[in-house]
Input
Amino acid sequence: MNEAHPVGLSIRNGSKIYPGTQALKSVDFDLRMGAVNVLVGENGAGKSTLMKVIAGVEQLNGGTILLDGEPVVFADKNDAARHGVGIVFQELNLFPNMTVAENIFVGHEKTFAGVHINKSAQTAAARALMKRLEQDIDPDTPLGNLRIGQQQIVEIAKALAENARILILDEPTSALSAAEVEVLFRVIEDLKRQGVGIVYISHRLEELIRIGDYITVLRDGVVTGSRSMEGVDIPWIVTNMIGSASKDFPKTVQHELGDEVFRVEEICLPRAAGGYAVDHVSLSVRNGEIVGLYGLMGAGRSELLECVMAQHPNSSGRIFIGGQVVREKSVSGRIRKGLALIPEDRKRDGLVQIMTIRENLTLSSLRDFTRILHLSLRAEALKAAESVKQMAIKVASLEHPVSSLSGGNQQKVVIGKALMTKPRILLMDEPSRGIDIGAKAEIFRAMRRLAASGLGILFVTSDLDEVLALSDRILVMANGRLTGEFPAGANASDVVSAATPNFNRVAIQ
Amino acid sequence: MSSINTVSSEKTVPGGSKTSGLLLLLHMRTFVALILVFGFFAIYAPNFLTGANMLIISKHVALNALLAIGMTFVIIAGGIDLSVGSIVGLCAMVAGYLVLYGIDLGFIGIGYSIQFNTIEICFLVLLVGVFIGLINGLLITKLNVAPFIATLGTLYVARGAALLFSEGRTFPNLAGNPEYGSDTFRLIGSGSFLGFPLSVWIMAIVALLAAYLATRTPLGRHIYAVGGNERGAALSGVNVDRTKLFVYMFSGICAALVGLIISSQLQASHPASGETFELNAIAAAVLGGTSMSGGRGRIAGTIVGAFVIGILADGLIMMGVSSFWQTVIKGVVIIAAVVVDQIQQKLQARVVLQQQVN
Output
């Protein structure tokens, strides 16, 4: 087996330190050519960092990279590309307004004398690449006209155009339809046969088992398992991903759950391309209950919360709070009814960065400090100060711009803002995203405390640990549907299996 | 240093003496510029410091300041209103027409026309301004037209309408008719109270109202929030569309007021009045520290900005500087204002960061 798949690139004793955290700890990694090297781990386990190191986006603080046995240092992404390493990021870096050929050669155009773009040469080369990838895509088509799956192929062609011998694919299937996944897998098989070494990162475990030849599992920056794919099953992966030692989560405080406070029925959100992003979802939350909504990227969890928060005018379904149907169509109306959302993207949706901490905290509840038209700045400042104390937000002054706070403290401001509207049900979309461990623990404790005081919480997460440790009840979504419901203390691999869409589709071919 | 959890509700007092002094100076830059410009002309321009001249300048400034107040709200909300100059022209024409002819009901078969007194004329003209502002707002919120394009369109439409009103002619002799109670129309432009022209009083009242609105009402806070982060504001329950409609309608009212004042001052309505006023209004707002990317700006700053531009213009004329050079100097001042603004932003961010660390 080793002769068939020679090691093309390897990392020995690799370490990477970011301010505050160590993302990689003495990692050894072998990348075999002509094979699919699968990389798996939870969010924050160090997959992305490892990948960025290989692609030259980040540099190691310690350890060495060996390319064909020779030590190398990639100064940057272009340097790595010159050495034959190409990367396709999860977020596509393409220009919808330019043609396929222009996209493939952007940044390294084929030119006469470095000035005039040799359009025919680019088109011919792009056509050859498309042929190699067995795709029927005209190089002169504007990229925006292609489906997401085809755009992904163009992204791969872009890497191959720079003669990539090593190709890193980060969650390439998260936005693809079933048919497009099949196309991608065929392309990967072809590339393997041509001797390209592929690093494949995904959360979809059954996909990994099907396509992978070698697997490496990361947990907290340490390689916890590395072997040939033969005989690997989902429980083995999950065990290595999560480990036995539980992270520092606040223990579930026993308290009585109250009556049902929140229920949605038959929430539907049609997708522009056909089908449903949210497919007839019904669920309920009780007073004092924390319900964790687990699923992979694109499962429709955020969209569900957005439907509840009146962000999608063409969604349908019924919403009840305390048994009363919610008819309000505006965000402010739903906030008044007792709904509050902590959005996933804090910067984009949660805060007005240019405004002060005080102004952000009170933005949703200005009415409380207003008589007729007059806003009482004194009452507002008092309430904001109270909120800062309650949420333990570390601020030097309420009058500083909210952008001066750390991620964790910004998140607390968003939660404080939501709580100030006196919600009956709190919707939280990835509440721990992009904040450090310490702040995470504080956010979780706050969630526990709020639940104990009787608030119903529905939170979305992609972190298995989080959903297992924090939830009184676990719901799982996949492909827009609810695919599982588990009590607290459920088995991790059951939850993962439920979150894995189309298990039958790719399980056996 | 020990407790970072202390909360002070008073305004930020920047720490560190050297940076804080500089920061304070930068913070007050428009005011400093005003004093410099004023002092310069007081010394070098003959007759600048006379009471009569001050009154003339303040009358000039009042017009631009009124437009700039409306413009400031629009810009803070993340938009732009290019149509204000044309609204001035159209409103001036409407005012002139109403004073001269009233509304002729001949078209429904009655040989009769309704005449209006001054108050009614003012009300109708303001309604025209609000209406055009409403159209701007609806185009931008409901039909998703970019503010620049929507108000560029209404700039042309309103100007065209103003010309159509009189087929390009001027409405002369707006003396009004005592019989209808419209002879007081000229007072808007020429009357005075406690020694100050009425137009200056109007400007002062609108400015106070706007400053109150901006700082002490939820609507004002919403305007800042919409300009700072529209999505975030919407998810916080701010009615974004209604907020935007308001700012364009308010800007329309301000422009209508200017139209009234101009036609009354001249006792004539000219369809070209108000041309390029929108650019002066934007300049005053920017000079006063309003950020073109939205979310930041103050009414007081805008007023000071309008005074800097007004004093600069009149002072240079009094010194006999050629009008070509005046234009160049105005441009330089505007650019300098924005450059200084950027420096202040950077410095302020650094100071806040230091305080956060301490």
